[in-house]
Write a structure and sequence with these properties.
alpha/beta; Rossmann fold; 7-stranded mixed beta sheet; 11 helices; 13 strands; 20% strand
């Protein structure tokens, strides 16, 4: 494949003006095997990328262009950092030209089109392509991703919840009660995107803390679909997201009932063994209390396992919602798709303070 042979991977980004788009640019501009070829924005057509994002001065020389003028069909891979519905409307034309696709929205996350239409209020434009797409959680689908033409990058909340539960559910025998899983999750304001909305204004979000989507959130069916497939049975999930007054970061606390037959399990050892070879998952020492600042701007996800009582398990999971929860994970997928070590261009140390 091109990456493995040393040839630069020609990369295009559709919708590069949002937070996931600029994270893609930050990561890809330093990737040794990537040639940034095209970036699109109808509204900012002709504007230098570095004018919008001055942190990229001296690193990205591209200008935004309309999709029609961006020569996306000349790329090896195109990332869609766009609203839901955009990638599926353009997928077939790109695939016909041999271009691979990584979608950071929801178009290729849910295999059940009826569920997709229920939550995203639009018909799915290419169910045949969806059927051949791969859910891009590397630690779950590594082999499938390496041969995929279309990857649906997981949502940020699902990444933390699924990876926090994976060792407990896989292997055909769950160790916890799959009908009473509670995921209590918090995200920084950047998770809402760069669009202007009253709820994410500084005066609204700062000095406050609130739950949202309690009656239903789009990430719930995504999490439930993946967990049910892992466990081999439908799961019962209570998922409550919260908005916290920080720019970036995500903290998911998972509450679980240990099954009677699993009471003798060493859960710390279970997690350490499952993730020992995963470069971007850090199972912390017993008793650890992870902080979101320890993963800021990195592709690292950290897990701490606690057992406050013999029958209860609490799993703490943190990540940067814009990196491992979005753009970093997308680059990790690209590396696999092009035969590169999946850590390539992603070994940034978290930023402190």
């Amino acid at each position: 494949m091109s990456g493995a042979l040393g040839k630069k991977i020609k990369v295009g980004i559709v919708g590069g003006t949002g937070y996931t788009g600029v994270e893609l640019l930050r990561l890809l501009s330093q990737h040794p095997n990537v040639e940034l070829t095209a970036i699109t924005s109808r509204k900012e057509d002709g504007m230098p990328v570095a004018q919008m994002y001055p942190n990229l001065r001296g690193h990205v020389d591209l200008c935004f262009a309309t999709p029609e003028n961006a020569a996306l069909d000349q790329c090896d891979v195109v990332f869609f950092a766009t609203p839901h519905g955009v990638a599926m409307s353009q997928a077939q034309a790109l695939l016909d030209k041999g271009v691979r696709i990584i979608d950071l929205a929801a178009d290729f996350r849910l295999q059940d089109t009826a569920v997709f239409e229920q939550w995203y209020k639009m018909p799915h434009a290419c169910p045949d392509i969806l059927a051949d797409s791969v859910y891009g959680l590397v630690e779950l689908n590594r082999l499938k991703i390496s041969g995929a033409s279309v990857v649906g990058n997981p949502g940020c909340y699902p990444t933390t919840v699924i990876l926090g539960l994976l060792p407990l559910l896989e292997g055909g025998k769950a160790l916890v009660d799959t009908q009473h899983i509670i995921a209590d999750c918090k995200s920084g304001v950047s998770g809402a995107g760069r669009k202007a909305e009253v709820a994410t204004l500084f005066s609204e979000a700062s000095d406050s803390f609130k739950a949202y989507g309690v009656a239903g959130h789009r990430h719930h069916p995504e999490i439930a679909e993946q967990l049910s497939a892992i466990a081999g049975q439908p799961v019962g999930l209570t998922f409550v997201p919260h908005l916290v007054p920080m720019i970036r970061g995500m903290f998911s606390t998972l509450y679980l009932r240990i099954l009677p037959e699993a009471l003798d399990t060493d859960f710390q050892a279970l997690f350490e063994t499952r993730y020992v070879n995963e470069a971007f998952i850090d199972v912390m020492p017993p008793g650890s209390l992870p902080e979101t600042r320890s993963v800021r701007a990195s592709n690292q996800l950290r897990i701490a396992v606690h057992r406050p009582s013999p029958g209860q398990l609490v799993v703490l999971v943190i990540q940067d919602n814009l990196v491992k929860g979005a753009s970093g994970q997308a680059v990790q997928n690209m590396n696999l798709m092009f035969g590169l070590p999946e850590t390539t261009g992603l070994e940034h140390v978290a930023v402190l303070p």
